[in-house]
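Researcher: I'm preparing a figure for a lab meeting and need a structural model of a single chain. I don't have an experimental structure, so a prediction will have to do for now. The sequence is pasted below. Please return the structure as tokens so I can convert it later.
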Amino acid sequence: MRIYTDEIINAVCHHMASRKGVPVSKVEAQLSWDEDYGFTAEVWVDGRSQYLVEANLLEAIEQYMYNHYNIRVFRSQITLDADEEFWADIEV
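Model: Understood. Here is the structure written out token by token.
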């Protein structure tokens, strides 16, 4: 199974909204990839910025897959990649 940029951002937004106790509409996220840091996301919650590292992104995808698809996956089953857009390959 593969999910793309929009779903990864949705996963991050839902995850952060749950953690911060705010509505999803109050969360924005932007994905990026860097040679030094790998996959990251800058997240804004109520106007405050926070950076997430790859482990946080994988956690968000795990939760998203369970909550939206009722599929339990583990981090070892998720591979992030990017070209002109981001995607996550998920072994189910």
